[in-house]
Design a protein that fits this description.
111 residues, Cytochrome Bc1 Complex, Chain D, domain 2, mainly alpha
């Protein structure tokens, strides 16, 4: 069987659709650090920006982005037991979680 020839309009529509999907796929892989920095104010009220663990609150500075996203999503799905983190994660969108992951992942713990 041979493929049916496509019209130029169909090719243009397919090209446009592919172009529209690509930016979304890239954004899902890496968040906006500036947005993450803006959103981080709530996080650093408990998590130290220095990267140190204090009073049982784990460090999140320098955490790999994929690990941060996985942790936040597990809180969002209530798979991890911490009511405060479940509440915080539940109000964040995927884009915001990715942005926070990019921001905290870009920081290095202070000595």
């Amino acid at each position: 069987m041979s493929a049916r020839p496509r019209s130029p309009a169909a090719g243009a529509i397919l090209g446009l659709a592919a172009g529209l999907m690509l930016p979304g796929a890239v954004a899902a892989q890496s968040g906006d650090r500036a947005l993450g920095e803006y959103l981080s104010a709530d996080c650093v009220t408990c998590h130290q920006i220095s990267g140190r663990q204090t009073a049982g609150v784990p460090a999140i500075v320098g955490l790999p982005e994929d690990a941060f996203v996985a942790l936040m999503n597990s809180y969002k799905r209530r798979e991890r037991d911490n009511q405060m983190m479940q509440t915080m994660a539940a109000r964040l969108s995927e884009e915001e979680i990715a942005a926070l992951a990019a921001y905290f992942g870009s920081l290095r713990p202070q000595p």
